[in-house]
Structure formats: structure tokens, C-alpha cells
Amino acid sequence: MVTATATRKSAKTTVRKAPKHTPALQRVIPYQEKVRLMVIEVLREESGR
């Protein structure tokens, strides 16, 4: 019984908290990602979507 209790306690300490949600407007994206998104947007417009 002591072993089971110790196992449960150690399992609880290894649980990590989920990362805090960051609003999209406050997130910084690299220049390459901006270029990629702009290219996708233009291609969608040109294809008639």
C-alpha cells in the first residue's frame, strides 16, 4: 500500500500546467510567416475563392 501511495504522489508532481492562452494580436510572428500568409491570401483571391 505504501508503494501505491508513493507512486500516486510522484505522478501528481510531474503534471505540468497548460500554457497560458495568448491572444492572437499579442503574439509575435516572424517575417517569413507574414510573407507566407500574404501569399496564401493573394492566391486565394486570384483563384476566385
Overall description:
This protein is an all-alpha fold. Helices cover 59% and strands 0% of the residues. The chain has 2 helices and no strands. The mean pLDDT is 77.
Give the helix/strand layout.
Layout: H1 2-13, H2 31-47
Query: Number of helical segments?
Result: 2
Global geometry: elongated
Largest sheet: none
- Beta-strand segment tally: 0
String of helices and strands: HH
In terms of DSSP E residues, the strand content is: under 5%
Q: How many angstroms separate the termini? A: 64 Å
- Mean pLDDT over the residues: 77
What class do helices, strands and sheet pairing give?
Answer: mainly alpha
- What integer value in Å does the Rg equal? 23 Å
Low-confidence stretches: none
Helix content: 55-70%
Quaternary structure type: single chain
Tag the structure with descriptive keywords:
mainly alpha, 49 residues
